[in-house]
């Protein structure tokens, strides 16, 4: 199981000798499926290895006696005799086993080794049942457990950890005779490619069929939620012992123990069968047989270590080992912290005490063998408890250092990314932003879904040891239990120049059948941040009227009624008296909004209820309780409330009726569903203790979607991130914004949790941009413009810039009657939305968790046709319109395809997700935003390689820009046609600068000074002195999206601006000196005008001179033929 220095990836599975000497005689027949699903290659043949071993001779009996290692790689399969080498995979220990996964690149190598195949932590089933549970049920489970689980069960509560790796010794009188051969099922599965066949179903399973079936069931008159008395009846133990289970879907086999399935999505070598990537992801899952005697707390599916190896230096170069420097931590739900943390630094935490905030942030919990709750960082979770050291020990790296005692330092929900920035932070000079594309390899681990359990990844302080846990938290195993697919991928140095997690994100979207963008983009208004709960029919109608009048400038397509219309949460039909029409009040509002040309939306918290609500008084049995039988803590959002149990059929019936009423009776097209985590609060005081929290959330979301229908736009908020993939159309990805940049006194300003503030909202909007338009349409929360807030002009501009570049939903939330024209112009200049998502270039290398630079490509050279690039309007509400048709056609492709093909060198302008199409004639350029998140004015330094638009010829064989590579000269790769320098246009300042060619050839950075919390958007375009060029405008942040056509001849230049919305500002053009502007005539909207010269770039020879001019324009959107047309004749 040692590392390999061979080229390409390799998966090695350790099969130790059996303590009885039986060897591998009961091994199932694991296969490696071919690329087309019709061929297979035996990896671990039945009855032991038969392939000719690399070592150990031809005698397969010898391999059974000593154990063996089976290997899968692009070169085929092989079987090797195990050798007593090094820990933690010591074949001499009975029952030992494990696996390794390695990659190889031209510079350095990261290998992953897991010292365990799996372990399970469980307890007697009766211990998982709260004291309030029905006595009959408790007595039944107690009788089944007594004498078979623990003779001392009446004493202190205990959990027991058991490594299922072959040792047959019983654990506290629960005898488990499983060996490695009993639990392994190894195969390769080829992932589908939707771009080849859009109708093909995903091979890992999809929720689409489940939703369709659920919707059909719910259409009937009979309620599908009838509470059956015997729903929790457990089968007799003797039946459990004789259960047969389908393992591979084709044959019934006797399940002696858990099934561990590995999958390597690859194409097998052969004719037209090549590996799709130099290191494809490794997938695996655990299926555990039913046993009502036990309650499972967690599976440890990976007890891993990261091993670093160095390639041999060549005569021309030498390389350092890429040490992990950062870890990307994903929070549990919408509001939880998400970002990259520098190695050794504490994980950012909530500043609020646990009783006020724990439920907001607590996803999967790892329970150790002594019964304590094991958490990663006592400072972060305030629990002061640690992971079972048996799951994070036996550390071994290349220097033979052994980590004998480990308290996990970091915890990430669903997935994590360990990365290397290529150098220590102490080596960074002149405060330069370190770019991800200049760093080393990355390791992505996690789960493809959160349907079965809430999975977590834990890491040590040095990012060399990590564990992957599937947390069930006391689920009584009355039915077979399966984990979600686990994921592990090593991304080699420089094989990505944008996002290290891109393959994982696409795999999750594919697995969960996500369909973002199918319903178009959302621009609208929400009532919350000005009125909060003090809303009325009159205030809502007033703003809807103002919005309709403003649609000539900003195409509002949604008006959302937020919290405050009902008397109590849970009593959704009880409207506040005197503020809303008594009979049919919500229907009246919805119809009024729709009459203004917008979709009506409404806020609901379907799985929450107020403590004093009628619902709570009438149905106390619907409320989730903790393990002690008390009402479960839901955290405090300004008040405490109750969570409703999604495992209870009566609760699901209530939620179904609530959603159905809002859509069908009230007439709302958009639902903002908040506090969804309340359906799966921590605690086993629920209707069905055999259902995990993740299963409860999954069931609740299925109920919601079935009630709402496919056409309703659902915005998830306060929802576990992994659970919402495939269900939410829009998804809140940050905490609430607020009227201040950081939480205001008396709230702690140092909070990194869920307190409302602009800083936390911006942080998560950038750090979760990678999932936008892949899993759903990101909702960054509202853009606040009103002077009633404490936000500065710079902070408002920063918020608008980040929302615009990340392509998220654009919602305003002020009293529109009181917003000044100055602040409203900020929103006008980022509208309309472009439908593309910028890439944070320092996401995995930032030292302060706040990315500072975002990048978009802009080009006329994309896969879209010229007609589409002219006519696409992402704000049109009509489903029959061509813009919506274009979005639907792009949805499946943009969801599943990576920004560039693995292993291929692809022009950045072909990356549709991060490159938007502009009119022919505008050329190609780079758009970047640079931010200063400090509380003081600062000079920010950025490598010029991040700012220029690379042509295909400027990329190295690894797919990275030459200027970003540590092995090439920084003088190359300065962009397409950059010999004449670059036009640099600052959008918010409306300033132009010409940068001569060679200015940054010595590797010196470009520097810009920014005020506190300020952001500037820069446009960098190579100079072409042979023809007129469009530099940009102050009309739209993209400096190109506002242009419909750009044409020129030897005698004129014609610019046609899109005239769908009113715009006023200036356009900037570069014209060669030979044009003769002294005799030029300028026409704007058919009327004579003039220009101003703002710069005269000195490109070199007199014949190469030119000037940049500014022309004032106004688009009135009146439908006239000349509206938006600008022409210059000479």
UniProtKB/TrEMBL annotation:
Residues 1-39, 75-96 are annotated as: Disordered. The keyword Metal-binding does not apply. GO terms for molecular function: alpha-galactosidase activity. GO terms for biological process: carbohydrate catabolic process. Pfam families: Melibiase. Keywords: Glycosidase, Hydrolase. InterPro entries: Aldolase_TIM, Alpha-glycosidase_related, GH, Glyco_hydro_36. PANTHER family: ALPHA-GALACTOSIDASE C-RELATED (PTHR43053:SF3), GLYCOSIDASE FAMILY 31 (PTHR43053). This is Alpha-galactosidase. It comes from Thalassiosira oceanica (Marine diatom).
């Amino acid at each position: 199981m040692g590392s390999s220095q061979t080229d390409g990836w390799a998966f090695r599975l350790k099969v130790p000798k059996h303590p009885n000497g039986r060897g591998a005689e009961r091994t199932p027949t694991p296969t490696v499926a071919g690329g087309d699903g019709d061929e297979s290659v035996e990896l671990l043949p039945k009855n032991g290895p038969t392939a000719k071993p690399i070592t150990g001779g031809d005698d397969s009996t010898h391999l059974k006696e000593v154990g063996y290692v089976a290997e899968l790689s692009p070169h085929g399969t092989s079987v090797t005799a195990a050798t007593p080498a090094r820990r933690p995979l010591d074949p001499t220990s009975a029952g030992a086993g494990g696996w390794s996964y390695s990659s190889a690149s031209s510079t350095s190598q990261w290998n992953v080794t897991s010292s365990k195949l799996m372990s399970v932590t469980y307890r007697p089933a009766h211990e998982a049942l709260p004291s309030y549970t029905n006595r009959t049920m408790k007595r039944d489970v107690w009788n089944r457990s007594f004498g078979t689980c623990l003779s001392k069960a009446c004493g202190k509560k205990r959990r027991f950890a058991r490594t299922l790796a072959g040792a047959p010794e019983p654990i506290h009188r629960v005898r488990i005779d499983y060996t490695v051969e009993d639990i392994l099922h190894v195969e390769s599965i080829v992932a589908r490619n939707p771009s080849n066949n859009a109708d093909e179903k995903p091979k890992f399973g999809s929720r689409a069929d489940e939703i369709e079936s659920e919707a059909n069931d719910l259409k009937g008159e009979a309620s599908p939620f009838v509470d059956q008395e015997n729903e929790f009846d457990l089968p007799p133990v003797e039946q459990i012992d004789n259960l047969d289970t389908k393992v591979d879907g084709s044959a019934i086999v006797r399940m002696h123990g858990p099934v561990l399935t590995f999958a390597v999505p690859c194409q097998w070598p052969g004719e037209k069968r090549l590996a799709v990537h130099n290191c494809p992801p490794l997938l695996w899952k655990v299926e555990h047989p039913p046993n009502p005697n036990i309650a499972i707390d967690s599976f440890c599916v990976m007890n891993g270590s990261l091993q670093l190896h160095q390639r041999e230096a060549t005569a021309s170069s030498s390389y350092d080992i890429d040490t992990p420097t950062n870890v990307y931590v994903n929070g549990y739900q919408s509001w939880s912290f998400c970002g990259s943390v520098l190695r050794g630094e504490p994980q950012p935490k909530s500043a609020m005490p646990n009783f006020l905030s724990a439920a907001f942030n607590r996803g999967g919990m790892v329970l150790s063998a002594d019964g304590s709750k094991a958490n990663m960082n006592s400072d972060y979770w305030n629990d002061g408890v640690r992971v079972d050291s048996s799951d994070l020990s036996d550390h071994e790296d290349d220097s033979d250092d052994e980590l004998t005692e480990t308290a996990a330092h970091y915890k990430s929900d669903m997935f994590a990314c360990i990365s290397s920035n290529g150098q220590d932070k102490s080596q960074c000079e002149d405060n330069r932003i370190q770019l991800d594309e200049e760093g080393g390899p990355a390791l992505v681990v996690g789960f493809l879904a959160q349907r079965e359990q809430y999975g977590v990844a834990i890491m040590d302080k040095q990012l060399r040891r990590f564990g992957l846990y599937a947390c069930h938290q006391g689920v009584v195993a009355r039915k077979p239990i399966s984990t979600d697919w686990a994921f592990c991928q090593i991304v080699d140095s420089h094989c990505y120049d944008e996002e290290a997690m891109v393959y994982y994100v696409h795999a999750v979207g594919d697995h969960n059948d996500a369909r973002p963008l199918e319903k178009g983009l959302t621009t609208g208004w929400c009532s919350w941040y000005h009125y909060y709960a003090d809303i009325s029919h009159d205030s809502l109608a007033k703003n809807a009227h103002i919005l309709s009048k403003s649609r000539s400038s900003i195409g509002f397509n949604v008006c959302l009624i937020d919290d405050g219309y009902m008397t109590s949460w849970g009593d959704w039909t009880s409207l506040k008296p005197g503020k809303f029409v008594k009979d049919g009040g919500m229907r009246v509002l919805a119809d009024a909004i729709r009459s203004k040309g917008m979709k009506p939306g409404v806020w609901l918290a379907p799985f929450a209820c107020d403590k004093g609500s009628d619902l709570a008084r009438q149905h106390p049995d619907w409320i989730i309780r903790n393990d002690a039988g008390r009402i479960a803590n839901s955290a405090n959002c300004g008040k405490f409330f109750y969570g409703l149990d999604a495992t209870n059929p009566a609760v699901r019936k209530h939620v179904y009726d609530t959603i159905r009423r809002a859509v069908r009776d009230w007439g709302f097209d958009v639902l903002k569903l908040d506090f969804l985590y309340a359906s799966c609060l921590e605690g086993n005081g629920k209707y069905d203790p055999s259902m995990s929290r993740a299963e409860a959330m999954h069931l609740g979301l299925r109920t919601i979607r079935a009630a709402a229908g496919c056409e309703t736009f659902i915005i998830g908020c306060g929802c576990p991130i992994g659970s919402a993939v495939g269900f939410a159309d829009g998804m809140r990805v940050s905490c609430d914004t607020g009227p201040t940049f950081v939480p205001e006194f008396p709230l702690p300003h140092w909070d990194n949790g869920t307190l409302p503030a602009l800083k936390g909202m911006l942080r998560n909007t950038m750090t979760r941009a990678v999932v936008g338009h892949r899993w759903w349409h990101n909702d960054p929360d509202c853009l606040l413009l009103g002077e009633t807030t404490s936000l500065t002009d710079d902070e408002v501009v920063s918020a608008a810039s980040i929302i615009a570049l990340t392509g998220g939903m654009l919602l305003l939330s002020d009293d529109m009657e009181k917003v000044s024209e100055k602040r409203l112009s900020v929103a006008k200049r980022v509208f309309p939305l472009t439908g593309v998502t910028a890439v944070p270039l320092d996401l995995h290398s930032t030292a302060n968790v706040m990315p500072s630079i975002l990048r978009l490509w802009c080009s006329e050279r994309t896969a879209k046709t010229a007609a589409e690039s002219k006519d696409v309007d992402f704000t049109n509400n009509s489903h029959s319109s061509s813009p919506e048709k274009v979005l639907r056609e792009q949805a499946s492709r943009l969801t599943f395809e990576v920004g560039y093909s693995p292993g291929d060198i692809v022009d950045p302008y072909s990356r549709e997700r991060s490159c938007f199409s502009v009119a022919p004639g505008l050329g190609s350029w780079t758009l970047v935003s640079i931010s200063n998140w400090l509380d003081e004015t600062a000079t920010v330094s950025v490598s010029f390689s991040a700012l220029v638009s690379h042509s295909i010829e400027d990329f190295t064989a690894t797919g990275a820009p030459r200027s970003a590579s540590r092995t090439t000269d920084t003088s190359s790769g300065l962009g397409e046609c950059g010999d004449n320098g670059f036009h640099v246009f600052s959008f918010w300042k409306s300033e132009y600068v010409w940068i001569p060619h060679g200015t940054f050839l010595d590797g010196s950075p470009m520097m810009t000074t920014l005020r506190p919390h300020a952001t500037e958007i820069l446009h960098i375009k190579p100079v072409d002195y042979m023809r007129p060029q469009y530099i940009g405008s102050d009309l739209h942040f993209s400096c190109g999206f506002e242009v419909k056509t750009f044409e020129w001849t030897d005698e004129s230049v014609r610019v046609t601006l899109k005239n769908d919305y009113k715009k006023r500002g200036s356009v900037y053009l570069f014209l060669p000196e030979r044009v003769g502007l002294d005799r030029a005539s300028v026409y704007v909207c058919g009327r004579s005008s003039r220009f101003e010269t703002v710069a005269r770039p000195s490109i070199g020879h007199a014949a190469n001179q030119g000037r940049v001019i500014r022309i004032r324009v106004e688009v009135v959107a009146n439908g006239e033929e000349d509206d938006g047309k600008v022409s210059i004749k000479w």
